[in-house]
Every structure is written in structure tokens, then in C-alpha cells.
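Q: For a teaching handout, I want to show students what a protein-ligand complex looks like in C-alpha cell form. Below are the inputs, and the small molecule is tryptophan. Please produce the holo structure.
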Amino acid sequence: MTPLPEPLPAGRQALPWGEGRKEDSPVANSPLFHYSIRMRVLSGFQPSGKFHLGNYFGSIRPNIEFQKKSDVSFFMVADLHSLTSLKDPEELRSSMRDNVLDFLACGLDTEHSVLFRQSDISEHAELTWILSTVTPMGLLERAVSYKEKVTKGIAASVGLFTYPILMTADILLYRTDLVPVGKDQKQHVEIARDIALKFNNAYGETFVLPEPQIQKEVAVVPGTDGQKMSKSYGNTIPLFGEEKEIKKAIMGIVTDSKEAHDPKDPDTCTIYQIHRLFLDLPGAKALAEEYRNGLPYGDAKRQLFEQCMEYFAPMRERRSILQKKEDEIHDILQKGAKKASGVASETLERVKRAVGLI
Ligand code: ADP
Ligand code: TRP
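A: Here is the structure, written as C-alpha cells, with tryptophan included.
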């Protein structure tokens, strides 16, 4: 795979088409260029059941924060990708509805970001085919995510194998500079970059070369059993679950067998490792001190529960209001699709011209 240049010269290879591009700016040569210039960002999420605290702190919150720093941002619900693993139509429909509500409740600003559904934009599937004709088999054969998913029991379909090409189409259609992703998706963005380069070499400069933006500061959020929090492990604390469901999950966090007032080690305590995510540095330090001074686990769990309810209260309220406004959600997705389609169709037209289809 092509190694990424360091430091990332984001946007430098980009072609000067599309609004909001700044490569001709006088500060483009400054060492601060990468940090000071706002960029085009695309985030993508598979609608996959109910979100949990791991999704929120590991992905939803950093993505929403990062989008605020961008010039133009696209927030895509990758429902076509979900078809590779989700085979229950009703579950797909309800996850789609739930996850759109979740993002909006968590603060996704549709004035700034274009929220849309991948399947609403037919250019994704069309570009995927064109890109597949320049994608070497070997590139996909090296994709670790495919192998991991097959090992986990997901059917080894052609769609699962070519998943990275669809993701490449998602990224390239919107002339994306930066793709904020967790470490697990970094290889997919590198594949997108490689495919864009292959295409540009074959047909002339057409695509912007994207960079992954890895959220370094976010560690793995532990689940109630101390392993990585994940739907597949049944150890989650649901983000927008019923109050009693959240309480039950938190009260069930596994701890060691220390006596109530024994000193506790915050670094190895799952309750603390989750609680600190809600706090700033001084707050987390003060809480760690309480653990060292013998905070009983029962009290620590109650504190975490209260913190969790307080932190998410405004989002829960927003969500319950939005839930009753089906029409508004429908309008948001329609408007998003219209804006996304404008950009995607322009890119696809350039691609078709480049390859000789028009
Ligand atoms: P799950 O493991 O529950 O199936 P997904 O794989 O659907 O979760 O996660 C979507 C995104 O949420 C991931 O790309 C990852 O960035 C983030 N994420 C999920 N679980 C965690 C976790 N425990 N800690 C940090 N980030 C997480
Ligand atoms: N593959 C990503 C995941 O599972 C979701 C995704 C699809 C995506 N298309 C994307 C992420 C484009 C970023 C950009 O998390």
C-alpha cells in the first residue's frame, strides 16, 4: 500500500475544482497549513443497531467535533455497506431511523453538514463499478477487515470483498480531503487513496487524494466486562436506552473483590475508565484520587450512572422531541440527498468523460 507522506500535505494534490478549496491560498506553504486551513470532510457510519457509549466517545463525538472544523462536510449513513452484514430488512430500516435520530440528537448540525443516505445517491454504485475496473485484486486481498469479518462468521460475499471499493467511491465522489475514522478503518482510506492514484495515472488527474484523520486521543472504551465495548460482546452501555436499562448495565460492571473502603486503582478499574470520558483533566484527576482514597464500587457506579444521565440529558430530550417529527427528519434527508447529489453527479460526469463513456 502507498505509504502516507508525513506531515500530511492535506489537499495539496487536490485539483482546484469544487468550492471551498484553498490550495492557492497564500498560507498554503506555511507549516501551519495543515492545521489552519479548513477542509472538506466526509464521515461515514453503517446503520447497525443501537449505539453504545463506545460508539459515542470513540466515533460519534469526535466526528461531530471534527466536522465543525471543516469547510464543507458530508455525513453519510452507509446503508449499502450494511447489506454486507445485516440481512434483516426490518432491522435495517429501524437502525437507519434510530441512527439518524441519534446523530441529530448528539449535535450533528445540518446547517453545516450535509446529512444523507448512501442509497439515495445512485452515483455511489455506478462509480464503484468504474473504480473496480482499475482496482488490482491484490489490493483487496490485503484488506484485513475482510478477513476479520469472515473469521467472525460474516458470509464471504463478493460485496464484502469489494466493500473497500464502495467506500472509495463514497470518499472520492465528494472530493474529500480528510476522512475522520478509527484505526480499524485506516487501511480502507489508504486503499481509497491507492485506487484514486491508479485512476489518475490511467486517465489523468481526476480525483483528490484523501487522507485518513485518526482520532489519536480516543482510547478503546471498555465494556461492562472490561473488554472492548462492542455489540458483539453483549457488554454495552446503551447510549439512548431506557433509564433502567442503563442503570442495570452500569450496576453490572465487573470489578475486583476489594473491600468497600480499600484503596482502588483507577487505572485498572473499568468504572473509572468509563467515568473519566465524561470529565476534563482536572475532573478526572480528582475522581482518580477518590478511588485511591477508597471510594466503594457501589458508590462509584451510582456516580457514573448520575453522570451519564446528566451528560446525555439534553441529547435525550432533543431525541425525544425529534422522534415525534418524522416529517422533519424526512425533509433533512431529502435536502441532504439533493446537496450530495449535486456534488456526486458532477464528479461522476468528470469520471465518465475521463474514461470515455461520454
Ligand atoms: P461494535 O463493535 O459495537 O459493532 P462498530 O464496529 O459498529 O461497533 O463501531 C462503529 C465505530 O464506533 C467504530 O469504527 C469505532 O470507531 C467506534 N467504536 C466502537 N466501539 C468502540 C469502543 N469500545 N471504543 C472506542 N470506539 C469504539
Ligand atoms: N466502513 C466504515 C465503517 O464501518 C463506514 C463507511 C462507509 C465510511 N463509507 C465510508 C467511513 C466513507 C468513512 C468514509 O465504519
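A: Two things your students might notice: The longest helix spans residues 326-355. The CA atoms of residues 81 and 237 lie 25 Å apart.
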